[in-house]
Amino acid sequence: MKLALDIGGTYVRWEVVGVARGKEAVGSMDIQKFVSQLIRRYKIRALGISFAGQVHHGRILSAPNVHASFDPAAFGIPYIIENDLNCAVLAEARYCESSHIAALYSGTGLGAGVIDEGRLVRGFRDLATEIGHIPYRQAPFRCGCGKDNCIELYASGSGIHRWAKYLGLKPSLQEPKIKVLYQEALATAAATLLALFNPKLLILGGGVILANPDVLQWLKENLSHYAPPFSLEGCELRRSELQEASLEGAKILLERLP
Ligand SMILES: [Zn+2]
């Protein structure tokens, strides 16, 4: 049996492919122990892992949003691990049958994955398209990566919570001040992706986007103030229709393992 995992900042989602699936809150859980229990219970012989952090050659380089240690090599079975947004865009590309596609997800963090001419845009250490950590504006607190000017500090669920605490407001996009901070940053991130990668399809997803449908509508109406007109031409914005894109992407990884 094969196990697909999506290890995020808030939840661990898992599927023993075609057999069983579940979702656990990360909280203070021991992810290593939890996965090793699944491996034993279902006699797992291969792992496909979507991970909310920076991953290169099967190793986790850093994980600003996952507050638990995880080492897939320690299980002693074949595995493939990939950044969660790379997994998400693999799943979105297959679902939309697109070979020029970018996914921008605003959940706990802000992330992107890009497929150009059918191939993932990777960079030499697999660190390309880290949109959440581009320099934006100085904030009164620091990002998980150590900087204090990342766009993720504005256009993510964790950013919403930090600004709400700082301003003494509710952590909600119903708060006008927070909504403006969030929307401007999200539009800047989307425009940056369009300007740099010229996707034909830009998929918006992640917990914050999916819980606030009016954000996508606002973005559609206002993106022309942020993105160059030539990048917008012929490009379609769509809300993700996949329930668990990163987990679906982890299952795609498993197709490469026997
Ligand atoms: Zn950062």
Number of separate structural domains: 2
The first-level CATH class of the largest domain is given as: Alpha Beta
| CATH fold title of the largest domain | Nucleotidyltransferase, domain 5
Question: Under the CATH scheme, which architecture of the largest domain would be assigned?
Answer: 2-Layer Sandwich
Instruction: Indicate the radius of gyration in whole angstroms.
Output: 18 Å
Supply the helix-strand structural class.
Answer: alpha/beta
Q: Determine the fraction of residues in helical runs and give it as a percent range.
A: 25-40%
Q: Helical segment tally?
A: 8
Would you tell me the overall average pLDDT? 95
- Order of helix and strand elements from N to C terminus: EEEHEEEEHEEEHHEHHHEH
CATH superfamily of the largest domain: ATPase, nucleotide binding domain
Write down how many β-strands occur, each being a DSSP E stretch of 2 or more residues: 12
List low-pLDDT spans: none
How would you write the strand order of the largest sheet?
Answer: 3-2-1-4-7
Instruction: Estimate the strand proportion.
Output: 15-25%
Question: Which distinct ligands sit in these coordinates?
Answer: zinc ion
- Biggest sheet layout: 5 strands, mixed
Global morphology: globular
What is the end-to-end distance? 10 Å
